[in-house]
Amino acid sequence: MSAFIDTLADIDNVIGDAATSAPAAVMTCHTCGKPLTGSVSDDFCDEPCQTRWLASLAESSPYDGGQSPDEDQPEAAPVTPVASWLGAPPGVVSRAGHELLDAVTTFLNRFLRFPNEHCAPVVALWYAHTHLADRLYVTPRLILSSAEPGSGKTRVLEIGQYLVHKPEMTISMTTAAIFRLLLDGPVTLMFDEIDAVFSTRGGNNEDLRGLLNAGYKRSATIARCVGDAKSMNVQRFPVYAPVALAGIAGHMPATITSRAVTIHMRKAAYGDDPEEFLEEDVELEAAPLRAELAAWAGVVADQVATARPERPEGVRNRAAEIWRPLLALAEAAGGDWPARTRAACTHFVIDTATSQEESTGVQLLAALRDLFTAQGTDRMRTADILSALHALEEAQWSDMGDGKALNPQGLARELKRYDVKPVVFEPLNPGEKAGRGYVTFTTNGAQAQTGLADAWRRYLPPLPSAQA
Fold first, then answer.
1. How far is CA 375 from CA 264, 293, 371, 423, in A?
2. What is the pLDDT of residues 111-133, one digit of tens each?
3. Domain that holds residue 40
4. Whole-angstrom Cα distance, residue 48 to residue 30?
5. Would you tell me the crossing angle of helices 317-333 and 337-346 to the nearest 10 degrees?
6. Is residue 83 a part of any domain in this protein?
7. What is the pTM of this model?
8. Sheet of 188-191, strands arranged across
9. Residue 82: inside a domain, yes or no?
């Protein structure tokens, strides 16, 4: 044991001699390289050197391989990989606007047989516009009418409830209920069997008609007194909302049709039956389309809200106002949709404007323009005018009700609203006596009136160039 202890002592002596003979290491500052003599830190000579060293680390290249934020690049959400076989996640715009609207049109045509090629695109655009209605100043009403039941009116609403924004489909709803529905912003109101509401036996529905008339504009409100007798206050209810109305033709008030795109539905031809409508399947298939419509509407909302789209010639005043959102959406979609929508606008506003949608006065002005144009004259006697009008077999002038034909007093009464009055005029042919009737030109003095030509320019669309 003593020998082992002596060996350890010898080793300690050797180590001690080596340590004594080696020079002591001098610790220096990591920043300036000065000795750390008197410093309380083992790394820096003073606090400023430590601060400079930390600052140099912050300015140097990152240790994460460049994954730290780049101040020169705008912030963006991280890209989340998605399995390609799942398709685009909900709410993502995965295709161009015109492709999306094509898909909606194809979806509609599976379950419906529209009367012409213009109808399905207009319905698709109307569905899409509901998703940005809160950004628009005007929302067109969509009217679906037909001569007979079973023509597809309700089907448009049934499909639409799974594609529009916040659908509220109903057959009967009180005005008070609608007021409260719209307090939190626009919902899409979809009325079926509206002919029962506005028929002569439908009761007093002036409040509902007033709401539907006013609510096509974003600024519209209706004032109502709320509260009890002791604390009665006037509250202004917002009534702006997209509205679709389906019913049998002939019962819709003109004040509503003038704010609407009207599609006259027809029964499918025998042997041309559409695909069977199974609502639970339609709901599932429509869900991704609705999500895409909402996402796309959000992307183009600013563009559509401020757009001044090109419109067809002859589309003016309220017709131009209600078609503007649809034309703007079509321009945002691109492809052939702008041209298709302008063609549809011409079809519904110019080509197929029916007499049922026009007042008696406008129908009379149109008949007189045809008559004066055919005669190639600027003046006609009242008796000659009435004789020619009564001879029109399919017109109403030979039977204005109760079997009575249009007479001189009725003619004058209708035309007076347009500042057109009967006058005494000189005959065009020598030897004829002065006549009393109507002229196309303005007269002054005791017979002051504006003339038929002025009324035609203001209330009728232009004649085709070949007839003008």
1. 34, 54, 6, 19
2. 999 999 999 999 999 999 999 99
3. 25-52
4. 12
5. 160
6. no
7. 0.69
8. 167-170, 188-191, 243-248, 141-146, 260-265
9. no
